[in-house]
Amino acid sequence: MSTTTSSTSGTTSSAAAGTSAAPAVAARQSPAPTAGSALVAGSHGRTTIADTVVSKIAGMAAREVSGVHSLGGGVARAFGAIRERIPGSGGPNVAQGVSVEVGETQAAVDIDIVAEYGVSIADLAAGIRRNVITSLERMTGLEVVEVNISVNDVHLPTDEEAEQPSRVA
Predict the structure, then answer these.
(1) Which has more pLDDT, 33 or 136?
(2) What dihedral do alpha carbons 58, 60, 61, 63 form, nearest 10°?
(3) Cα–Cα distances in Å, from 25 out to 13, 15, 130, 154?
(4) Residue 91, CB half-sphere, CA atoms under 13 Å: how many?
(5) What mean pLDDT is predicted for residues 1-12?
(6) Per-residue buried b or exposed e for 24-39, using 16+ beta carbons within 10 Å of the residue's own CB
């Protein structure tokens, strides 16, 4: 059996006893991206971006907007508060309250927030969208097709007083 490689086409063919097999696929063909990742291809290779990376970037970008008290629903925030108090847990989960769908070149983001009392929720949502889209497109190269925002609660100034234990018995 003999195997020949053509340098111009990059294909491989085999010949055995006068029969020939169909040309094989080029050896350098890239595999498809794994589930839970995006594919950013360039002329010198490809880069895969995990969903968790996109979630963390979106979470940090949302937290940077003035008027966002916290991210996540009530249960997620409660578990997050417990997690932060455990030594060695790695600190706060920056992707809490953020879910993403990432394709090969596009991403969609859903964010659950708690807004500060007195802030215009429409303006807050617009600011979050703008910051998340700008950050994700700049850092990942993905096109952000939508950013959905759910306001789950409003943080009142009196909420912090109720959370802190009394110093006097």
Answers:
(1) 136
(2) 120
(3) 10, 16, 43, 57
(4) 2
(5) 44
(6) eeeeeeeeebeeebbb
Residue 37 vs residues 20, 26, 102: alpha-carbon distances, Å: 39, 24, 6
- What letters, b where the CB count within 10 A reaches 16 and e where it falls short, cover 59-98? bbbbbebebbbbbbeeebbeebeeeeeeeeeeeebbbbbb
DSSP type of residue 24: B
Q: Of 74, 93, 97, whose CA–CA distance to 149 is shortest?
A: 97
Closest CA to 67 of 133, 16, 1, 117: 117
Cα(157)–Cα(119) distance, integer angstroms: 12
Query: What DSSP line would sit under 54-68, residue for residue?
Result: HHHHHHHHHHTSTTE
The stretch 22-43 carries a mean pLDDT of 55
- Show the tokens assigned to 101: 């769908």
One-letter identity of residue 102:
V
